[in-house]
Each structure stands twice: as structure tokens, then as C-alpha cells.
Specification:
The structure holds two protein chains of two kinds. Chain A is α/β, with parallel strands linked by helices. Chain A has eleven helices and 14 strands. The longest helix of chain A has 16 residues. The two termini of chain A are 30 Å apart. By secondary structure, chain B is mainly alpha-helical. In chain B, helix 5 packs across helix 8 and helix 10 packs antiparallel against helix 12. Chain B is globular, with a radius of gyration of 27 Å. Chain B starts with 21 loop residues before the first helix and ends in an 8-residue tail after the last helix. Classes of the chains: A alpha/beta, B mainly alpha. The interface between A and B is large, with 47 and 41 residues.
């Protein structure tokens, strides 16, 4: 298990950042989603042992978030959203310093800094001052300084923000490699859902300090497997009215209908209902759910509840 | 495409304990600052007084030994009071104390200068470039961060105060060639190191606090220099007008001086020297006044006038003074009594330390906050 939080509450004055948050996440790459003010940053800081929670308990990599804060930060690497690079230092000096701050002996830190800079693709720029780096290079440098002490969990806060498509793809590729080939767990916080989908196996969605949904991305998509896109030759509205008492939900979308079938029903039922209604089906295909839909559906359900 | 790309490797080396994590911050800061030319120049210049102190203590060692090396300078040495010439060892501690006092009186300006160069960037730069999360997301506590930054300033202040003082002591002892020098003068060494540490901690925390007030290091440097100058000027004006001992407490440097006086026991040494000089003058006067018909002539054959009695000290009571005027004098009758007690100055320095710590904890917040 990567981390678990049990009934965690954190307030800042009148603002409740986390409300009785309970979540358990397995090792692997986890996407952290949520609108602004959802409590993502507070949750990250909780996991890093940077804040004192008001109530509840939790563990990160088996360490108590209340009692073993420094031990947690020893095992976790953090890539903040802010630039947080000071000028006048070269790349290898910056990463080596990060290693020393994590407790590595200076010689080991320097050797390791060279290795990780090679790994993130900054080997050629290691002796350049960090203030001359491009946005993508700075992002890779931050990743290098976060993994220099070989953490078990790497937390990335909006790692692809403000990057060009090429740089963004490089960061995603790096994240995938760390997660899938190097055995490092990731907590990937981002507003860019395709990025999360391309890197992570699990997601958790926060809204107003509460957990909205969590699970494997594939499983969350399966929950909407009963959705079909249907287009008929005749009037869409009339066929929609015909289907309404027979299906869970039907709504017009562009030139077709989006139909949610009841449990156990499939495409054959739709063919039968079209025949009964005297309609010809011109297009019938399962609806491909995106992470965006999972996200917005979860938020909408939470709002309704 | 590299010929051999080993990719990402896991690392399982030994980590240092949490107790010395601050050392990484100090090491990095010292390495960065030592590259500055201005810092190197100040350190080189600051070693000038240290060299003078070393030479002085070494010469004193030779005087104690009545070394033949001093034969060419016998004429100069004749100017020393007779008591010193006859038994220099009796004045060893006094002379060393005065030498160290004067050494520190000069070095404090170099400490001010090097603090103004090294200190301003330490925290203001981290605030300017949002580097605080870089530290606090590592296994570091806020106290480690503060101690690490303080270590940077303290290293450079120590390099212009404690280190030269210790080296000068070692050289002075070496030239004395006597173990008794150590037993006589070790309190001076302890006092000098202690005073150096007080300067390091006091000035260090103060500059860190000021550094945390602004993201612009130039403003910080200006604030630091302004603090010294303005507090010194304000204290000087008040001493001229109000003339109360507490007026000294307003000047940061005077507080440092007061504590130094107490730690080196400068007052005792001064009194001994003053007594020696007065007794020497008295003897000379008596000798001149009781000189015979030939000894009473001046260099050009004229009759030499008898030496006048010593002038009264600034605050002494003259026999002819009006008692009512004397009673209304607000200034104490001896200059020493107008000085603020050293414990007051120590209290002010301690208060400044507390205020600096409070500013630091307020300005360099933990990440336990909403934004």
C-alpha cells in the first residue's frame, strides 16, 4: 500500500481544506484530480508530513503521518509547481545540493547528481547555470533533484504546466518510465486529464476537501460501459421519446442519441426497439468514455448528492 | 545517442543523521559566498589588524624575555614606564587584554562589512525564487534551515574575528616560550572566543531576520548598514543631550563594546595602565623638579620651569569648585560610572536575538498554511 488516510480533517481558520478524507491507494502511478480549491495541495502536504492535521490518521509507505514526518520525506521526492530554482548555480550543483539536503554524503550526492541528470536528459547541460535553462529543462531539473535520493514515491504537482507539446511529452515519458520500469510510485497532480490518463493507472478525485471517486482508470471507464451512441434515419426526438421508458437515460448529443441501457441489456435490445418503433438504425456503437467524462460525472454526482 | 546509457539506477548508500542536516546548507552557502571577490577582499583586509596583533604579542613576548633581538630598539623601549621595563611579566595580562580589546574594536567593522555582503542574500533570495519548498520538502526542519543559514554568516564573521584572534594567541604564546603565558592569559582567549561567538550569533540572527523582510537583497544590505549607523548616531545624540547611561543601549555597536569590555575585563586592565602612567608621570615630575643646578636647565640653556601639577580629570571635583554646581552635575563624576552596566547591554542583545527569532519564524513560514 502506498498511502492511506483515515478520516483526515484539516482546517485553516474558517476554511476546511480536507473533510473527513479517507482513501487508500496501492503502489503505482496515481493521478490526483480536482478543481481549484479541492484540497489537492493540502493533501500533498499532508502526505509529505508538512502539516499537522486536525483529526484522523494516516500512513505513507507505512510511516505515520503524525509521528514520522522526516522519515516520510526521506522516502518521498517532491516536484513543486513553482519554479523554485535559485540563480548562479549550475545544474549538477543544484541536484547535488538537493541530495545533500536529503542526507547524502557530498561525494555520493555529486556522483548521483551526474547519474540522474543523464537520466533526465540534461547530461549535456549539467554545467550550465540553471537560470539559462528553458522551461522544459527546468522541469526536468526539478525532477532530477526530487529523485536524486532515490525516493519510493515521487509527487509531481502540475509537472506539465506551461510546457510546449514536445517538452510535455518528454516529462510524461519520463514519468511513465519511472513508474513502469523503475519501480517508483507516482502521485501525479494535474489539471490536464489526458496527461494523467497517459501516465497513471489509478486516479482519485477530490472536491471541496472530500473524496469524490477513486479507483483504476480502466474500471472507472467500465462503469459507463452500458452507454451507446445511436443514430436513426427518422426523427431523433421521436425515437428518444420511444426509448425513454425502456432505458436508464437517453439524451440527444449532436446528430445522435446517447443511450444508457439498463443492467443486462445490450445492442440486440436496441435493434429490437428500433424495429418496434419502425426506425432504421444508421449508426450504433458503444460510447468510448474519456477520463474527462469520468471526472465530470463524478463531480456532478457529488453535487447532486 | 550515448554509447552506453545506464539509465536510472537505485541508490542505497548511507545517509547522514538528522542532527547535522543543516551542515549541507552552511556548506553550500559558504562555497557560494567564498566565490565573491568582495568577500575575499574583506577577509584579506580584516587579517591586517590580526597581523598587527600577532606582531605586537610577539614583540611583547620578546620584551618579557629581554631578548637580544630587541637591542636595536632599546631607545624606543626606554620610553616604557620603569615598572614595565623592570618586570614586564607582571603586566602581561594587562597588555594582552588591551591589545585584544583594540583588535576587536577594529575587527567589529570588518564583521559589519562582511555581514553586509554575505547576509542579505541568504533568505531574501530563497523568498524571491520560491526556494523554501525545495528545503522543506526534504527531510529538514525549519530550525535546520535557520541554523544552516546562520552557519554561513557565522563562518564569515568568525573568519574575521575568532579565527585571527586564536591564531594571534597561538603566535603570541609561541613567541613567549613560557607555559605561564597560557595560565596567565587563557581567560583572554576564552573571552575573545566568547565575544566572537556573541557577535556571530547576534549579528547573524539579526541579518537573517532583516534578510527575511524583503525579497530584494539590496534593501536588506541598506537596512543592515542603516541599522548600525542610525542606532549609533541616535545614541550619540542622546548621550550629548540626555546624558543618561541608557542612551548607550540604543547603539548596537556600543552594546557589543560593553559586553566585550566585560568579557575581556578591559576595565581592570585600563585602571592598571592608568595607575601605571600616573605613577610614572609623578615620578618623572618629582625627578625633574628636584633636579640640581645643571639638571634644571632646558635644552637651550634657559631655566626650565617646574612641571605643573597634573590636570584634573574631566569629571573629577576640583577643590575650588562650587559645591552646589558639583551637586547639580548630571554626569557621574567618573567616566566609567556614566557607562551602562554590561548586563543591560547583554539584555539588549538577547532581546534583539529574541526579536530576530520571532521575525524569522513569522516571515519564513512553514508550509502548514493555505497558500
Amino acid at each position: 500500500m502506498l498511502f492511506d488516510l483515515n478520516d483526515v480533517t484539516k482546517t485553516y481558520g474558517a476554511v476546511t481544506a480536507l473533510r473527513s478524507l479517507s482513501v487508500t491507494m496501492p503502489e503505482g502511478a496515481i493521478g490526483l484530480l480536482g478543481p481549484n480549491g479541492a484540497g489537492k495541495t493540502t493533501m500533498i502536504r499532508t502526505l509529505l508530513g508538512l502539516i499537522r492535521i486536525d483529526a484522523g490518521e494516516g500512513h505513507v509507505l507505512g510511516k505515520d503521518i503524525r509521528k514520522r514526518r522526516l522519515d516520510i520525506r526521506q522516502l518521498v521526492g517532491f516536484v513543486p509547481e513553482d519554479e523554485c530554482l535559485f540563480p548562479g548555480v549550475d545544474g549538477v550543483g543544484f541536484v547535488s545540493y538537493a541530495g545533500e539536503l536529503a542526507g547524502m554524503p557530498p561525494i555520493d550526492a555529486m556522483q548521483r547528481a551526474h547519474e540522474v541528470l543523464d537520466y533526465v536528459g540534461l547530461g549535456e547541460a549539467r554545467y550550465r547555470k540553471v537560470d539559462s535553462y528553458s522551461t522544459g529543462m527546468k522541469q526536468r531539473l526539478k525532477i532530477a533533484s526530487a529523485i536524486v535520493h532515490d525516493p519510493k514515491l515521487l509527487i509531481l504537482d502540475e509537472p506539465t504546466n506551461g510546457m510546449d507539446p514536445e517538452g510535455r511529452e518528454e516529462i510524461l515519458e519520463l514519468s511513465r518510465d519511472l513508474s513502469r520500469n523503475k519501480g517508483m510510485s507516482l502521485l501525479f497532480s494535474s489539471h490536464l486529464l489526458p496527461d494523467v490518463e497517459s501516465v497513471c493507472e489509478h486516479i482519485m478525485v477530490l472536491a471541496r476537501g472530500r473524496l469524490v471517486t477513486q479507483g483504476r482508470i480502466e474500471e472507472l471507464k467500465l462503469r459507463t460501459r452500458g452507454l451507446f451512441e445511436v443514430r436513426v434515419k427518422g426523427e431523433q426526438a421521436a425515437f428518444a421519446e420511444f426509448l425513454r421508458p425502456r432505458v436508464m437515460h437517453v439524451s440527444p448529443v449532436e446528430d445522435h442519441l446517447l443511450v444508457e441501457l439498463p443492467e443486462g441489456a445490450g445492442a440486440s435490445e436496441l435493434w429490437a426497439w428500433a424495429r418496434d418503433a419502425g426506425e432504421q438504425i444508421r449508426r450504433l456503437r458503444p460510447h468510448e468514455t474519456t477520463l474527462e467524462e469520468v471526472f465530470f460525472t463524478a463531480l456532478a454526482e457529488k453535487e447532486t448528492n | 545517442m550515448p554509447i552506453f546509457d545506464q539509465g536510472y539506477q537505485h541508490w542505497d548508500g548511507r545517509l547522514s543523521g538528522h542532527a547535522f542536516r543543516w551542515l549541507a546548507i552552511t556548506r553550500q552557502g559558504v562555497n557560494t559566498m567564498a566565490r565573491l571577490k568582495a568577500v575575499r577582499w574583506v577577509i584579506i583586509l580584516a587579517w591586517g589588524p590580526a597581523l598587527l596583533l600577532t606582531v605586537f604579542l610577539s614583540i611583547w613576548g620578546l620584551i618579557e624575555q629581554k631578548s637580544e633581538l630587541l637591542t636595536p630598539f632599546l631607545n624606543i623601549l626606554q620610553a616604557l614606564p620603569e615598572e614595565i621595563r623592570d618586570g614586564p611579566k607582571a603586566y602581561r595580562k594587562t597588555i594582552w587584554t588591551i591589545a585584544y580589546y583594540n583588535f576587536y574594536a577594529l575587527e567589529i567593522y570588518f564583521a559589519l562589512l562582511i555581514t553586509a555582503i554575505v547576509g542579505p542574500n541568504l533568505i531574501s533570495q530563497d523568498l524571491r525564487f520560491n526556494a523554501i519548498p525545495l528545503y522543506f520538502s526534504k527531510p529538514l526542519r525549519r530550525i535546520d534551515y535557520f541554523i544552516g543559514k546562520l552557519g554561513v554568516v557565522a563562518t564569515f564573521i568568525g573568519a574575521v574575528t575568532i579565527l585571527p584572534a586564536v591564531l594571534a594567541y597561538v603566535m603570541g604564546v609561541s613567541f613567549s616560550l613560557e607555559w605561564s603565558v597560557i595560565t596567565d592569559t587563557w581567560p583572554i582567549l576564552v573571552g575573545a572566543i566568547g565575544h566572537g561567538l556573541i557577535v556571530c550569533i547576534s549579528s547573524g540572527t539579526l541579518i537573517l531576520a532583516i534578510s527575511s523582510l524583503s525579497k530584494n537583497s539590496r534593501y536588506v544590505a541598506a537596512l543592515w548598514v542603516g541599522f548600525w549607523l542610525v542606532s549609533g548616531a541616535a545614541s550619540g545624540i542622546l548621550l550629548q543631550t540626555v546624558r543618561e547611561p541608557w542612551c548607550e543601549l540604543i547603539a548596537y555597536q556600543r552594546n557589543i563594546d560593553n559586553v566585550r569590555n566585560a568579557m575581556l575585563d578591559t576595565q581592570g586592565a585600563r585602571e592598571k595602565i592608568v595607575a601605571l602612567v600616573e605613577s610614572s608621570e609623578k615620578k618623572m615630575r618629582e625627578a625633574m623638579n628636584s633636579a640640581g643646578p645643571f639638571g634644571g636647565f632646558g635644552p637651550f640653556g634657559g631655566r626650565r620651569r617646574p612641571m605643573p601639577p597634573p590636570r584634573p580629570r574631566r569629571f573629577d571635583v576640583d577643590p575650588g569648585d562650587d559645591p552646589s554646581i558639583v551637586a547639580n552635575r548630571r554626569i557621574p563624576f567618573t567616566p566609567d560610572r556614566e557607562k551602562a552596566p554590561w548586563i543591560w547591554s547583554a539584555g539588549v542583545l538577547f532581546g534583539l536575538f529574541g526579536a530576530s527569532a520571532w521575525v524569522l519564524t513569522t516571515r519564513v513560514k512553514s508550509l502548514d498554511r493555505l497558500r
